[in-house]
């Protein structure tokens, strides 16, 4: 936010600084450049604006021309925003905070509860997800949050139009909030089950398509331009974790014998995707691509392994991930040239 500077005799101060200026209009000390608490600029984000800027435009001690308050404040939203936009903003706030570690219960569920006992953090998160799903999937919000054009081409529609507002928000959160990845995978499953049979069913499949779209987009940007590598690599890593957890809970297929050798990129399991990244790293290192490309692909595959080890055989991991990476590292040559002395 830019700060305009006002002029006072001998020195420059922000408007409302310590300058004795003649008030506009009816004289007296104050106006613009008045003494003490004249202008609004000294406290641009203070909610108690009446203390700093009275709306008496003329005269008096320190009462300068008043200007509207912060346009991003709560008052302006309430007055200028339509109810539907306000509701969407509130829903988005709930989704982005559903996995926060707050208000954790001191003890797990009662022993009489059927099923495996959950840790306090798991029980609290599960309760938050159930409460949120009941709100998101209510009849008055279905059309607003899930309306989409799944068959639309990307040249005409944005990704948000093809997946729906809620799906787009969920993937955006999964790609940027590392501590909440399991929570967003569970939310994907819960919402998908809740809206089965409705006009907008297939929510989980659209989320998977969106995650793969953003993963491919970030990888393409890195390979073509080499810009924003850190941000793109972080998003790709979190999206792979999200897909790996979806494989664990049955939304996508995590592993199938022979999937590590699949040549159809449109019919990959999660483990098949990881093995494809390793194979691509091998091709990149043998070709003319920068060495950092192979290193990036290897790091993405290795960072996802802990999330697939529960459903992928150790032998497959060793054969298709670890052994090829070991072979690549054996051929690595450092670009560092030691000096003398």
TrEMBL record:
GO terms for cellular component: nuclear cap binding complex; nucleus. Residues 41-58, 65-75 have a biased composition (Low complexity). One of its GO terms (biological process) is mRNA export from nucleus. GO terms for molecular function: mRNA binding; RNA cap binding. InterPro entries: CBP80. It comes from the Eukaryota. Residues 1-78 are annotated as: Disordered. This is Uncharacterized protein. It comes from Fragilariopsis cylindrus CCMP1102.
């Amino acid at each position: 936010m830019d700060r305009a500077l006002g002029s006072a005799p001998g020195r420059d101060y922000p408007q409302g600084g310590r300058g004795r200026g003649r008030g506009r209009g009816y004289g007296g000390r104050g106006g613009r450049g008045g003494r003490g608490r004249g202008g609004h600029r000294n406290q641009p984000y203070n909610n108690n604006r009446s203390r700093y800027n009275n709306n008496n435009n003329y005269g008096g001690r320190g009462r300068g021309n008043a200007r509207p308050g912060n346009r991003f404040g709560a008052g302006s939203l309430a007055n200028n925003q339509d109810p539907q936009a306000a509701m969407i903003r509130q829903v988005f706030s709930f989704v982005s905070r559903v996995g926060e570690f707050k208000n954790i219960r001191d003890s797990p569920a009662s022993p009489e509860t059927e099923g495996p006992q959950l840790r306090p953090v798991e029980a609290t998160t599960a309760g938050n997800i159930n409460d949120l799903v009941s709100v998101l999937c209510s009849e008055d919000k279905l059309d607003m949050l899930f309306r989409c054009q799944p068959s639309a081409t990307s040249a005409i529609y944005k990704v948000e139009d093809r997946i729906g507002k809620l799906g787009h928000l969920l993937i955006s959160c999964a790609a940027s909030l590392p501590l909440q990845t399991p929570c967003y995978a569970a939310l994907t499953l819960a919402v998908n089950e809740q809206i089965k049979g409705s006009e907008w069913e297939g929510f989980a499949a659209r989320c998977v398509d969106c995650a793969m779209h953003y993963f491919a987009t970030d990888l393409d940007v890195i390979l073509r331009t080499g810009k924003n590598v850190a941000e793109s690599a972080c998003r790709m890593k979190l999206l792979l974790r999200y897909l790996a957890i979806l494989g664990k809970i049955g939304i996508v297929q995590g592993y199938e014998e022979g999937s590590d050798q699949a040549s159809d990129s449109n019919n990959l399991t999660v483990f098949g995707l990881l093995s494809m990244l390793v194979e691509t790293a091998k091709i990149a290192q043998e070709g003319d691509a920068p060495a950092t490309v192979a290193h990036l692909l290897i790091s993405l595959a290795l960072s996802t392994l802990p999330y697939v080890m529960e459903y992928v055989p150790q032998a497959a991991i060793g054969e298709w991930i670890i052994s090829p990476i070991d072979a690549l590292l054996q051929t690595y040559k450092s670009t560092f040239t030691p000096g003398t002395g």
